[in-house]
Design brief:
183 residues; Rossmann fold; single chain; 6-stranded parallel β-sheet; 38% helix
Length: 183
Amino acid sequence: MRVLAISGSLRAGSYNTALARATRELAPAGVEIELYDGLGTLPPFDADSDGAAEPVAVRDLRRRIGAADAVLFVTPEYNGSIPGVLKNAVDWASRPHRDAALSGKTVAVAGASPGQYGAMWAQQDLRRVLGIAGARVIEGELAVPRAHEVFDDGRLTSSVIAERLQTHLAALVHQAVPPALAA
């Protein structure tokens, strides 16, 4: 099974990107985690550029989401919501209508922030946006508050957060497996 992890942060020292990277070590057996690193290359959404004239970066995003069995979105919180670059990626992945990469895709949401709430507002907004875009958003979130205390030089150091991340990934994988294969 392949899971695509998308961090909503462009910052080099991002706690959210570090959380996405940590999934590689904590994923269930048999699960391959691919990190998407093209967020900064996506142009602003423009319906006139969609279709036959879609930008190369957009085609790559859609292809990678389409090839994944599930997607984990990891979001920081900017001004109480999701960052514009992440919303832009969701907008591109929600098109074309009825044949979008996100349509019916099983997704999960997580987030980290140095604050005490772990990007909870951003996660709530992202869950809503992904649902409207046609994704199957699993129940539950993974909020990582005081992220500066659980990461050291880009590595997850908290066993509590690691355990919660493993549980969240297991739920995503379980819900992404077609019922016929799970039996």
